[in-house]
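Note to self: user wants both folds in one dump. Writing first protein now.
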Amino acid sequence: MAQIQFKGKSFVQNHHLLVKYHELIPKKEKSLTDKVSLHDNLIIHGDNLKALKALLPIYVGKIKCIYIDPPYNTGNEKWMYNDNVNSPMMQGWLGKVVDREDLTRHDKWLCMMTPRLKLLRELLGEDGVIFVSIDDNEVHALRMLMDEIFGKGRFLAEFIWHSRQNVDSRTLNGVSIDHEYVLCYAKSSDMRIKGKEIDKLKYKNPDDDPRGPWMSSSIDGLATKEARPNLHYAIVNLKTGLQYNPSPENGWRFSKSTMERLLKEDRILWPKNPASKPRFKRYLNERSQELTGFSTILDVGFTVQGTRELREIMGEETLKFPKPVSLIKSLISQATDINSIVLDSFSGSGTTAHAVLALNKEDGGNRKFILVECEDYADKITAERVRRVIKGVPNAKDENLKKGLGGTFSYFELGKAIELESILSGDGLPTYEELARYIFYTATGEEFDPKAMNEKKNFVGESSNYKVYLFYEPDIEKLKNIALTLERAKSIGKPGEKRRLVFAPTKYLDQTHLDELRIDFAQLPFEIYELAR
């Protein structure tokens, strides 16, 4: 397979492995919830590379859908390369605006994207997909880069989004550019848009339908009324007399004749809440897949609509060129189920959160969002938009938005790096829970549960292979006297089926005693490592 080459590639290939874990500091006053939690909807303010690394201990392999809208690298966006890579050349890039005159702007952009895409891939579940918005400036380079990181066989589609409502006066070689792209890749080679193995666990048969297991799927379409008028019509629930109209930005997924057939076959699922939208039964034996019916042409929403939506919510123009809610909603509705987690690490004005909440309102779902925004407006624009759409926007044209979409979110700020080496000097020692979280994930690769931790008993948690213990106090003088002795080893209880993984500054036990007690010892403060036998 052909590979893309760019300056700095050798230095960023494994840079994501060297990024330190950072604290995530809860900010109750900026959150909209009774209890701030990393398991809530999340808005994180801070560098997205560090934030993605900080999310790994909890969310590795759990994200169903990723949507990102990175800088298009037009030369007019005023973005700067800020990753502290160990390279004299790249150190010289730090803090400098990447403009059109920068002869290395494509190299810098690829160096910026590489470690982020690698961490995003780790966070993505095996049945997950990633969507990336981009334009002609970097679409070819991005596709080659994603072929390398995700695998060429994981490529699903290159969608073309009709982004401009009118002809653009700013032409390229005399041609008006009225479209952008959305690249779509899967985490697993077994995940395909059509005709491949499907996730049977999603298909149930709660009503004993003789046609077999089914799942609830959206009937939202992907085309405006102007683009596909035949997909814009009313449907009526004959039992209640209630009439349902499609979104002006989306229309229905099916033509009127197909919809009439689905109604006749009793495949339309009517919502309990009249403000929500109907869905339809998709059967397992039809061998459909989440993204079935997607056209590679996205006639859904325009850039100008995104601008109007943000202005309607915020009362003024705040950010330029936000994506319309209908575009993001159309993507995530096809790639998620009602309990999926959606991640956006270039979150900007917060459109992705808005789309998730709107979709939940329509189908009664419980999808969660995770937003990461590095700019200073993370609270005043990104989070504020989400606050307003949750509570309600009085002047909104959409009735659901006017009443409020409901929901909660927890706001976090990126804190300091968890520096294990600082234990040597006693400066900036991490708390017991911070270090416990770090060692548990790094050593086991599994999620850390703070509720399971018992500091008094030195218990961190239980993984598939280990019960994990930590003898540690954030005090340099006490650390000098902490060691795994026979007494401490016996204090953690009798050996069971699982081996015990014990972290401490040092040990006074030989290997024979450790084996008898079924203990694997890991010393602090040296590099934490995975133990395998």
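First done. Writing the second protein, which came from a different request thread.
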Amino acid sequence: MGQQHVWIMIALVVDAVIAAIGIFVGAAFNMAGLLVAGPLLACARCNGRMTALVAGYALVLCGLLATVTSTVGSPMEGYRFGMVAVAGTFAVLVAVIRSRRENALIKITERVQHAILRPLPAELGGVAFASHYQSATTQALVGGDLYDIMMTPFGPRFIIGDVKGKGLDAVGLCAAVLAIFRDLASGEPDLIDLAGKMDARLSREMGIEDFVTVILAEFASGEVRIVNCGHHPPVRLSAGVGELQVMTPDKFAPPLGLNPHPERQDITLKPGDRLLFYTDGLVEARGRAGRFFDLGDHVATALALPDLEAAVKRVARLLLEHAGDGLADDVLLVLGEPLPAGVI
């Protein structure tokens, strides 16, 4: 919706400038016909209703211009008015058709995405999980967020990531990443080698400019081992501590597809501690004032709620309140907490 408002403002300003110039130069060079520019600009990014608003505005300016320049009733003025009306009608039709096609594509992409992203179990291998997927605004294409978890001989292994791009191409690459993870996760004991093999397999399927940011995580007793390939680091909320700790790796590695050489990071995670994984839509969301979403005390308070599901949903609500006009990108949140010994 924010992008649509920008295009409306551009279209309105363009027509206003044309009308102002037309009034300044007078009847010697009638510019009323150029007012078609506003509706034609609007139909490129706005829906039918907003384009119709701009078309009506252009007609009002056309009449105002004719009145000020004393050309009302002349044959050429009627021709120019008709031209603006026809162009406005055409622009509205184009906007309606384009919006319907875009909405259909978004729905198809969402269905495919939901089909490949399996729901996370509430508990696996002594770790409780809660997740939340927050879609972007209806005018945005579906992004390439991905996640999965599976039980392996080495304990629960988890992946979260984000592929470059949006739409069906991004969802197709998500499916490839998840298929390779599911194929290799149970057979490769070392997380670094797992990342290397995934990179080698994916490189054969990706274009030269494609890449995938991922975190591979392996949950063990008292800790979680992660390998980070270009992804935003998780944040930890330790039991009894009110501040979030960003688990920044000692060495940054590029995403899959760019020949990464990551290092393993071991993070202490005791019962009561919580670890939040997320995609870039969380920290890159801007508010009305242009500020990025801050992982501060308000997020720590939300993550400390007793119920895991309530905690992750509260973070999502804080994000939506911050974004105001809507999210430009999808957001995936996954919260994990080790269970006390003997609790299942």
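Dump finished. Worth passing along: Residues 229 and 255 are 5 Å apart (CA to CA).
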